[in-house]
Amino acid sequence: MSVKIRLSRFGRRKAPYYRVVVADSRMPRDGRFLEVLGHYQPLKAETRLEIDEGRALRWLGQGALPSDTVRSLFRKKGIMKKFHEQRVQEKKEAVAQKAVQA
Questions:
Q1: What single-letter DSSP state applies at residue 90?
Q2: 93 vs 43: CA distance, rounded Å
Q3: Which residues lie closer than 8 Å to 15 by C-beta, 6 or more apart?
Q4: Which SS3 state, helix, strand or coil, does residue 61 take?
Q5: Going from the N-terminus, what domains does the chain have, and what CATH number goes with each?
Q6: Predicted confidence (pLDDT) per residue in 69-89, tens digit
Q7: Is residue 33 a contact partner of residue 27, using CB atoms and an 8 Å limit?
Q8: How far apart are CA 13 and CA 35, in angstroms?
Q9: 23: helix, coil or strand?
């Protein structure tokens, strides 16, 4: 099962409101999802973006792939940078542990 982090559209016509959801890639855009990570309102005077960082990092760590739009939203919130730093730190720890064992 391929898991994606993507937007699910809500709201009325010409006034979209999105949820950032984790869903199976085979499900339709507004279909079933596994978890809601946050909300995104692009048309407000000041764009509203609320995302649960801890849950997003957890899903990214488990291999969920963000869509292009979600990736850019995560980049704005600094989540992608934290995820990258977390992965680099894990690799450094793995290399250090192998050196200690050898």
A1: H
A2: 43
A3: 43
A4: helix
A5: 3-101 (3.30.1320.10)
A6: 999 999 999 999 999 999 999
A7: yes
A8: 25
A9: strand
The reported pTM is 0.83
The C-alpha atoms of residue 79 and residue 57 are separated, in whole angstroms, by: 7
Residue with tokens 């050898």: 102
Q: Which amino acid is at 40?
A: Y
The predicted-structure confidence for 26-48, as pLDDT tens digits, reads as follows: 888 878 889 999 999 998 778 89
Residue 47 CA to residue 45 CA, distance in Å, equals 6
Question: Across the beta sheet with 15-24, what order do the strands follow?
Answer: 48-51, 35-41, 15-24, 3-12, 65-66
Query: Rounded distance, CA 43 to CA 33, Å?
Result: 24
The whole-angstrom separation of Cα 87 and Cα 60 is 10
